Fold these 4 entries.
Entry 1:
Amino acid sequence: MQTEVVDHPLLADTMAVVRDRDTDGERFAAAVDRAATLLLTAASARLPTRLEEVATPLGPANCRRLAEQPVLVPVLRAGLGLLPAARALFPAAPVAFVGLRRDEATAEPHWYLDALPERLADRHVIVLEPMLATGGTMVQVLGRLAALGALQITLVALICAPAGLAQLERGAASLGIELRVVVGAADPVLDDRNFIFPGLGDAGDRLFGAL
């Protein structure tokens, strides 16, 4: 497993807005979208390309195009906050949704939606999940993706914690998948509710409101 904490002044400034408790919902969503654009740009740097001749107004030019569109997998509901940026960068990419709900008492994830295709062999999958806390949810998602044949997976997250990274590393090794984690920040610990500390709070609630 490879982990990259993206170091960029624009991302650092945007993450400050995302973390700030006084950032309202509209500005929070806009900042998450900006952060996602920067993170996805970094995450896509290694995607395979192919050569294609393009006719410019003045003549032919040899250009590089993506060899294949990745499959975008947002984890509901908070992962939806990263999806607009992903769709803007990969407008032709297929999107497959998964939904898991974390039990607040046990921190164990429970599936409530699996809209993945029947086969993902030879496809690069980009998973969108703002927070990597315990890693329990992501290990479940990785296991399902691996069962469908996906062996090259990139996770894009805003913030991670050491416990989540350790869990993912063990999971990726046992599943035999090539996993890359691209994040905007790495925070030191989880609190007693298994929230990333200092983190940014509940990403889903801040994006979509608390009921």
Entry 2:
Amino acid sequence: MTALKETAARRPKPRTCVGWHEYPCFDRHKFREKRTKRKREEEEEEEEEEEVEEEVEEEEEEEEEEKEEKREDNTQRRISTQDFWRRRKPLEAYRTTGWRSHTNPFATEEDDDDADDDDDDDDNDDDDDDDDDDDDDDDDDDDDDDDDDDDSGCLYE
């Protein structure tokens, strides 16, 4: 037994708890310190993960907001252009479509009336020259042959 006492005397004495109990609790203190360190580290890691997740969510929300703003801007532009053309449509449609000349979109009624009058004058001239009509018919046949050649090269037939 004395040998056991001597070996125990050589070992460092454990720290005693300063609390209400007097028996040695060295291991308990170490365990508590390790446990608190682990808890702190875990809490810090969780906080960092939460911060990273929050940042990612904020970035996604910002991107979504930007997309929504772009959509709203595009719809506003589309609406404004539609309003513009709705306001302008009666004028432009009257000028460029229908019975008006498609070659000149800015033609006025007077121009179209003059063009119609010129056609009427040509009709009257044709009545005077019967011989020219026969020649015109022959020329028309030749023109048709030329048109057929032009149409054969057309890609949209």
Entry 3:
Amino acid sequence: MTELIHLTAAELAAELASGAVSAVDAAQAHLDRIAAVDGELNAFLHTDAEVSLAAARAIDERRAAGERLGELAGVPLAIKDVLVTTDMPSTSGSKILEGFISPYDATVVARARAAGLVAIGKTNMDE
């Protein structure tokens, strides 16, 4: 099988739905890749492996229990820093907002999470 980080979202979703891959494995593969190359790229402002893997584990448990999940359930998702989240700092690239944690998720983030996508971090941007 192709490395998980090289699969399209649709390909990874199919592997997850078939049980060939777990959401935890998919999230961990992406987190490992971020750790390996982000020092040079500076693409991510924030990752939290513990939170991401807990979300992935919850998807795996729901799938194992036979719950019907969204088509993209378990697929890792990088969130642009302009979108606010309740569990990761949201700065929109501004020093003034450094450390800001929103009391709510942006609508698109809330919908992605409801569909079962696993947030793995916030991506960098300019102000």
Entry 4:
Amino acid sequence: MSLFATLWKKLMNKLPETDCPTCLRIRYESGKAILAFETAASRALGLKVGQQVEKTKIPPNAPICVELPEVTPADMITYRQRLGLTQEQFATKFGASIRDVRKWESGEEPVDFDKLNLGAGAVYATR
């Protein structure tokens, strides 16, 4: 696990659950991070793998809001295939509809992270 993933996991474990629908909360439930989400978060924060980060105190109830970069259809297909899932399995595990997954992978619609149940998928994908 990278330094960023280790620090991110420690930070996420200290934060309470948030109801903020516009916030993306990435919570690592096991020792291994999902490469796709770690990469997206790193890009959004402008970090590079192995880069030292300045320690900052964050209030315990502060939600983390991360604006993710655009995910291309090829990215979606790659992520799903890395997890070894069909479109149907991916939709079920991440709480999206099969129709949405197909539209995201075909490029008809941009990926809507609000429709994905990232917590459940993260637990599944890291086992």
